[in-house]
């Protein structure tokens, strides 16, 4: 089969690789219907996150089950499924409590020895614990597919930021980061009943999506100027809940600064850099909570899926370009230079 | 009247100062019955936290109302009261939500222009918002007084750590810090229903108190060795809730490391040093929450007071030495060299 392979910074190729096959009785093989490129893939693309030359890449996909191992009981060939961005056994303490990202048998698509999502097929370990079934007729529903694909990571991650920041009905929420995760955070905050949602961003194409997702205000300023603007908008207090969807020291500093005393930052931007953006003295004096991390998408997909299918939320607008597998290297370039927000791959 | 005054590092004196008087209609003057020295006072004593020469000191006291301003409606002369370690107006958004430490009219006893708790009397701003009434007959109850005095700070702060760390019935809790706050954190965790409470400490006199407060295990190791020991005790997972009651980078690093994935650190140790102890990468991968800060003691005192009066909790054992006002300089020396755990002052 053909799959995306990363050889080094800015060196992404589509190559012929071995077909996936069942290696363990709990495995399934899924033929990919749609996948995408994530903002976090860019850390590898840019060489900030190191990869072994020849490693696969991509961790968001949905597809059709092609084959299952002898221990798989929840799926049969032909089932349409979405995969969260990590696999997990579904049976350990962590999986049972809904923190599948800490499963001791879990892993991340594309890690050495595993398939990546940006390829024609994927071997899925612990299929019963990992995959979530989708309606079979959705497989040809081009209107529905992008929203379902977003559950794999960005929508679930935006939701995790909102849950971690304790977004409640009536809350004032600020969202730091205008990428697909930040935008999905806006959508998640609206879904959780936030009264006011302030999106930080200056690119019209993105802030337009933020507004369509429920942002009531847009702040173009950054850093201290953004904090000042948001304090002024909130009677000097700041936002009850702040979603940090970037992962830099600067964005963390901004997120903490614009949180209302007693409020929480839900951080889901993969941290790059140290902890210098975490001002523990400021957090202490103002009782700011810092919560979040890698989103347990598997725990969130069922409830979010129900709302996507019901039309309550539709994260599809985060995808602004659709390509085929051969277009993937161009897709990375487009996301790297921010000419594309999020690129979807169809097979 | 006479009060404790700090002139510089290691320079604490008892001096004649002006008698407090009502300056604003919401003020009360309280004659101090009992006060104490706090571990956090040592930061000023050691010169780590700067003070203006001649500043008052001490932020924990209980006493009898001597005089009230014309706007005070909740107290009359003769009332026996305890003061939380900050004053607050009792009417603002933050006070009404129980975060009195963020009250815009609030302040900290001993700050420039205010009285400190380690003196014969104190002018209390916003008496109605600040003070909590105690049973009048408790004023002569030498058995009850120490436990009531602990509500002013250490017991409320230990409770804040436990609440912030999300201690729940059945939880495994670890407590970093064997000072009075850490020990009160043990007591708070037991009160909240923790199943297993692991106290970090190596001084027998302190770990004995920890055990009497409900610690089920004591770990003498520090740093990575403590983390390893606690992981081994918890099936490799760590503690659901970790109370950080020291405030150094090392203690924060330890607290985060020994938290179970998905768990929370409740931090109440006044941060000294930067954020280097906050390993944001580790927190991200394991979904660790960092919550806490300066404890809104005023919010907690009513419910904790009820349990002290009912004998459900008795934090009194954290006081291991009682002195009079003239003994205060010696009291600081004793706490500084750790020969005393917490020193109580009677008047």
From TrEMBL, chains A, B:
The keyword Metal-binding applies. The keyword Zinc applies. Pfam families: ADH_N, ADH_zinc_N. Residues 180-306 form the Alcohol dehydrogenase-like C-terminal domain. It comes from the Bacteria. Residues 25-135 form the Alcohol dehydrogenase-like N-terminal domain. InterPro entries: ADH-like_C (IPR013149), ADH-like_N (IPR013154), GroES-like_sf (IPR011032), NAD(P)-bd_dom_sf (IPR036291). Keywords: Metal-binding, Zinc. Its cofactor is Zn(2+). PANTHER family: DEHYDROGENASE, ZINC-CONTAINING, PUTATIVE (AFU_ORTHOLOGUE AFUA_2G02810)-RELATED, ZINC-TYPE ALCOHOL DEHYDROGENASE-LIKE. This is Zinc-dependent alcohol dehydrogenase family protein. It comes from Streptomyces musisoli.
């Amino acid at each position: 089969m053909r799959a995306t392979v990363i050889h080094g910074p800015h060196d992404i190729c589509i190559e012929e690789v071995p077909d996936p096959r069942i290696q363990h009785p709990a495995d399934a093989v899924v033929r990919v219907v749609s996948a995408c490129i994530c903002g976090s893939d860019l850390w590898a693309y840019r060489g900030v996150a190191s990869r072994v030359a020849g490693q696969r890449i991509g961790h968001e996909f949905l597809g059709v089950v092609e084959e299952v191992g002898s221990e798989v009981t929840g799926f049969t060939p032909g089932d349409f499924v979405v995969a969260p961005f990590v696999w997990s056994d579904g049976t350990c303490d962590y999986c049972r409590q809904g923190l599948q990202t800490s499963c001791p048998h879990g892993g991340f698509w594309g890690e050495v020895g595993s398939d990546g999502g940006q390829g024609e097929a994927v071997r899925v370990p612990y299929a019963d614990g990992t995959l979530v079934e989708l309606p079979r007729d959705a497989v040809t529903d081009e209107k529905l597919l992008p929203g379902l694909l977003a559950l794999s990571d960005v929508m679930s991650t935006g939701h995790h930021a909102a849950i971690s920041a304790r977004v409640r009905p009536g809350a004032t929420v600020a969202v730091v980061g205008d990428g697909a995760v930040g935008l999905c955070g806006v959508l998640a905050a609206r879904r959780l009943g936030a009264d006011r949602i302030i999106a930080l961003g200056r690119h019209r194409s993105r802030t337009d999506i933020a507004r369509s997702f429920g942002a009531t205000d847009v702040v173009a300023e950054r850093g201290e100027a953004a904090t000042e603007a948001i304090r002024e908008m909130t009677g000097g207090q700041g936002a009850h809940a702040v979603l940090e969807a970037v992962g830099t020291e600067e964005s963390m500093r901004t997120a903490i600064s614009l949180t209302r005393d007693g409020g929480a930052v839900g951080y889901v931007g993969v941290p790059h850099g140290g902890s210098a953006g975490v001002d523990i003295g400021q957090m202490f004096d103002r009782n700011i909570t810092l919560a979040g991390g890698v989103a347990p998408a598997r725990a969130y997909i069922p409830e979010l899926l129900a709302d996507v299918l019901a039309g309550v939320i539709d994260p599809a607008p985060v995808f602004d370009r659709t390509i085929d597998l051969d277009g993937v290297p161009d897709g990375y370039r487009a996301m790297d230079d921010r000419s594309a927000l999020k690129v979807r791959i169809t097979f």
